[in-house]
Write a structure and sequence with these properties.
The protein is an all-alpha fold. It is built from 7 helices and 2 strands; from the N terminus they run E-E-H-H-H-H-H-H-H.
C-alpha cells in the first residue's frame, strides 16, 4: 500500500490539492494505504473542494478518467472557481499552520499519541503530523 504525496506539495501554487488528487488516484487503483480511506472526500479534502467550488465525487470521477493533476485542477477552475492570488496565500497560510495553537491542537496531540509520535516535539501542525506519520522527513521551516 502507498501513501500520497506530502500536503506541502503545491500545484499552481496551492498546497494540499496534489495530495487530495493523489489520494483519489491511489484509491482508484486499490493502492491507497487503508487507514487513509476513511478521510476521502471529508475533512481537508472537503475544505479543498469547497475552496475550489467543486464536489468531491465529481473531482474523483475526473481523476478516475486518468486525467493528470494539472488537467483536473483546470477542470476545477472551469467548473468551480479559480481562487485569486491573495486567496491562495490565505489558504496556504491557514492549511500549513492548521493544528498549531488553534482548534485542531487537541486533535493533533491525540493523533500523535495514537501513532506513537507523542515524543516528537518537532511536529507542530497537521501537515507535519501527516508527513511524520507517512514516513517523510518534516518540511523545512
Amino acid at each position: 500500500m502507498k501513501v500520497p504525496v506530502s500536503p506541502y506539495e503545491k500545484i499552481e501554487g496551492i498546497v494540499y490539492i496534489r495530495r487530495m488528487l493523489d489520494k483519489a488516484r491511489l484509491f482508484e487503483r486499490g493502492e491507497l494505504r487503508e487507514d487513509l480511506h476513511a478521510n476521502l472526500g471529508i475533512a481537508m479534502d472537503a475544505w479543498a473542494c469547497e475552496f475550489l467550488g467543486v464536489n468531491y465525487a465529481d473531482l474523483a470521477a475526473r481523476v478516475k478518467e486518468g486525467t493528470d493533476d494539472a488537467a483536473v485542477l483546470n477542470w476545477c477552475f472551469s467548473h468551480g472557481r479559480k481562487p485569486a492570488a491573495q486567496e491562495v496565500k490565505v489558504w496556504n497560510a491557514y492549511m500549513i499552520k492548521y493544528g498549531w495553537c488553534d482548534e485542531a491542537s487537541e486533535r493533533l496531540c491525540s493523533r500523535k499519541q495514537a501513532s506513537g509520535l507523542a515524543d516528537r516535539d518537532d511536529i507542530f501542525t497537521m501537515f507535519d503530523y501527516i508527513d511524520a506519520d507517512e514516513g517523510r522527513p518534516l518540511h523545512p521551516r
